Amino acid sequence: xxxxxxxxxxxxxxxxxxxxxxxxxxxxxxxxxxxxxxxxxxxxxxxxxxxxxxxxxxxxxxxxxxxxxxxxxxxxxxxxxxxxxxxxxxxxxxxxxxxxxxxxxxxxxxxxxxxxxxxxxxxxxxxxxxxxxxxxxxxxxxxxxxxxxxxxxxxxxxxxxxxxxxxxxxxxxxxxxxxxxxxxxxxxxxxxxxxxxxxxxxxxxxxxxxx
Amino acid sequence: xxxxxxxxxxxxxxxxxxxxxxxxxxxxxxxxxxxxxxxxxxxxxxxxxxxxxxxxxxxxxxxxxxxxxxxxxxxxxxxxxxxxxxxxxxxxxxxxxxxxxxxxxxxxxxxxxxxxxxxxxxxxxxxxxxxxxxxxxxxxxxxxxxxxxxxxxxxxxxxxxxxxxxxxxxxxxxxxxxxxxxxxxxxxxxxxxxxxxxxxxxxxxxxxxxxxxxxxxxxxxxxxxxxxxxxxxxxxxxxxxxxxxxxxxxxxxxxxxxxxxxxxxxxxxxxxxxxxxxxxxxxxxxxxxxxxxxxxxxxxxxxxxxxxxxxxxxxxxxxxxxxxxxxxxxxxxxxx
Lengths: 211, 336
Prior knowledge:
The complex is a heterodimer of chains A (211) and B (336).
Chain A: H1 12-20, H2 24-46, H3 50-66, H4 77-101, H5 112-123, H6 131-148, H7 151-162, H8 167-174, H9 178-199, H10 201-208
Helix pairs in contact in A: 1-2, 2-3, 2-4, 3-4, 4-8, 5-6, 6-9, 7-9, 8-9
Chain B: H1 3-8, H2 10-15, H3 20-32, H4 34-51, H5 61-79, H6 82-86, H7 89-112, H8 115-120, H9 123-130, H10 149-158, H11 165-177, H12 196-199, H13 218-221, H14 224-244, H15 248-259, H16 267-283, H17 287-300, H18 305-319, H19 323-326
Helix pairs in contact in B: 3-4, 7-11, 7-14, 7-16, 11-14, 14-15, 14-16, 15-16, 16-17, 17-18
């Protein structure tokens, strides 16, 4: 049913306005457009598996339904949606962190072991193997790298580089000034660069490129 | 350009969001500085790695369906008339409409047309207007549409100052200040409680209640009486809410508190209270008290006579009472 929705001409904002006025099919359209992206954001932001992330996704979209009347059609729908998703993820992380460490301040421990495994995978990668296989390992490295980032750097990085949202929208979503968003994005890149460097990834790439 | 500055704006450079001059400076710096060149290369690698990300996961059909259904249920709930959702709309909507009407009248009557309007509704002036009663026709009150003309005139003759709920409440508000109250105002007896919206509660829609007229607090207007009226409305809302939630005991207590407060609440407020009480007693099986309150309701609100009589007849049937016995002739109205 969701694949059949082809009202591509309708903007998110128009669809949301219709949904506000009782057009439930517009909700399906928005869900089909953004369900995957929000799910991906949730998975990467919280580091949970798909099943748990789907529970969170469901909670996020239930909030969209509940709060539909509070949406201002002048606002970008994605800003509003990802704002809800982002806050929900942060709430989840707080609860999880508390549950695991008994304190809201305790940092999540760094998963060194897992990083090392990926490093081995990258290093031992047979140069003759298909690029696709190499890329798969890279994706895992990225995943771990992103998880290592501080929450406020991670959200900015994911919204910008994975979800492709413009910086001013990210500023609204995270309720931070644009300058702060820019510097957080920079710190996120620096953090990933460090993790990538430690894994030997850049070295491998340079070798691969024959430099 | 130094390396720190270059590093600072390197991501912007990758984004292409720098202005032409700055962009050229960065490009030049990268070309000549091996460290920054390396950094640029590595950041680009990271971005490439991110872009390898497989397309977004697809939420399971189960989740999608559940959400889709939730959205349908919610929007469907929007379309159910309030009457069905709350059950009590017959009371609640007139109550809210009356409050809104009151606010509108108060706002425009007091501020837009100035003192003349206020004087127009004082007891003295109203009394003058009402005798002979024909003259009152110049002031068709919004709330009186439903009241039979004869009945209304009779009411006016009995008590010329009370001609409609909309006028009545602020009138009382003024009197409480003692500013324009004539000596010994007659006790309110019969008012038309209906307002036009109250006649057709089904036609009401939630959306219409979203933009109530501006309400002015007593502090802004300097009329403490208005606060009293608003206090009754607040209590009434609470009583109706309690009734709606099925807590008849609490609702009865709140309604009794309203009816026993001084100064005596305006009749339209009392009408809602009597009705709420009657319905609560009816619900809890106390037919006698229910009938008593329906009778009181009829007295303060002739417009609801049909409804009250039908309820009394119903109660009389099930209780094996004679309906007529339960309807006393006009007498002094006592609070519950």
